[in-house]
Amino acid sequence: MLKFLSAQPPLNLWLIFLAENLLVTGIGLFAGWLILKLSKRPIRPASRTEILTCTGTNLINTAITYLGFWLLQRGYLVFGFEVNWHIVPDFLLLFIAMDLAMYVLHYAINHMSIYNVVHKFHHHYHNPIPIDLFVLHPLETLSFGGLWLITLAIYNFNFYAVLLYLTLNVVFGIVGHLGIGPLPAKLRDSFLLKYLGTSSFHHGHHTDIKHNYGFYTSIWDRMFGTYKA
């Protein structure tokens, strides 16, 4: 695959990466819609602003993907492609590292004057639907993208661990913007899941910006006193 991509002219690469981002977005939104449909919850239609912003976010994410591939070609990013036991610890390291980094960035954005310019745009939707995962100010999308590339540049992760992380990133993002808890309360409160960033956990942040800044877990909120059940 890397040989195929490396042989492509820039325009083809851009189109391939754009198609990839749109496909991931489409699958995620369909899955979110299906969950809401099966739960028999009223689903409000996405507004024109949400649709246009989601499209813009995909264009920016395509540029970030293109930059990541450019860095990979020049050795600034290095991946291992072996299928071995390193996949598990690499995934766990990436999952925890990104969760902490995004917690810090999310907390900072919510407590700086830049909030009114950048992050308040996302919080315009107090009762989010899945598409709102992609309704972000361009500067915020670029910030998270830059954080992602910096994390990959610091450590040589296994490529399959990165793919697993990216898959779960979309899953957590869609679940966090359902506005409902798709799992039974008993299961959500189990030892294995109680520290994960559930839909109700992130929904709590949309209704109260002073709490629940974590993305994948509630660990850092519990540790730093920003957790709210």
TrEMBL record:
Single GO BP term: lipid biosynthetic process
Pfam families reported for this sequence: FA_hydroxylase
Superkingdom of the source species: Bacteria
UniProt cross-references to InterPro entries, sorted A to Z: Fatty_acid_hydroxylase, Sterol_Desaturase_Related
Keywords assigned by UniProt, alphabetized: Membrane, Transmembrane, Transmembrane helix
Any one Gene Ontology cellular component term annotated for this protein: membrane
Residues annotated as domain Fatty acid hydroxylase: 91-226
Record localization: Membrane
Record field: transmembrane: 12-39, 51-71, 91-109, 129-151, 157-180
GO molecular function, one term: oxidoreductase activity
Protein name: Fatty acid hydroxylase
